[in-house]
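Hey, I was hoping to borrow your eyes for a little while. I'm sending you its amino acid sequence along with the backbone structure tokens. Take your time with it, there's no hurry, and the full record follows here.
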Amino acid sequence: MDKLNLQNPLFATYAIAATIMILKVTCMSWLTVVRMMQVKGGYRSPEDLKQTLLNPTPDPKQLEPNAAVERIRRIHMNDLENIPFFLVAGLLFVLTDPSLLLARVLLYGYVGTRLLHFLAYFTGQTHDLRATLWTPGSLIILFMAGRTLVIALGQ
């Protein structure tokens, strides 16, 4: 598997894009916790109402949905619905030996659209804008998967 090493510029491009996306998804969990601590609410489990150092004055209202926390959860869910497909499609795409320029445009293009989508969602932009930012990323995944399928079937 000479293609799967960081000396291969194609794989290095994928590794960078994939790592950024993995870090983004992982950071969403932390952002959820930070937001819950900021608003002292948005908790989901009854045991979260136990008095602790981090929650010295528990209140049953802390289990009610909080708009700010739920926004972060929706962004995180959207990532979980999309980024795993990118990770798999991107790796398989690299194995088709595309040009380095095409790989960089697609892989980094996906990262760019996801980061812009995050900003739009986080700042409460319209669905139209979010969809406009989501669509290129989805098309990139479809293209990479389609190219992989065509090349694999042609072998």
Observations:
- Residues 9-153 form a domain with the Four Helix Bundle (Hemerythrin (Met), subunit A) fold (CATH 1.20.120.550).
- The mean pLDDT is 95.
- The chain has one domain: 9-153.
- The CA atoms of residues 3 and 95 lie 7 Å apart.
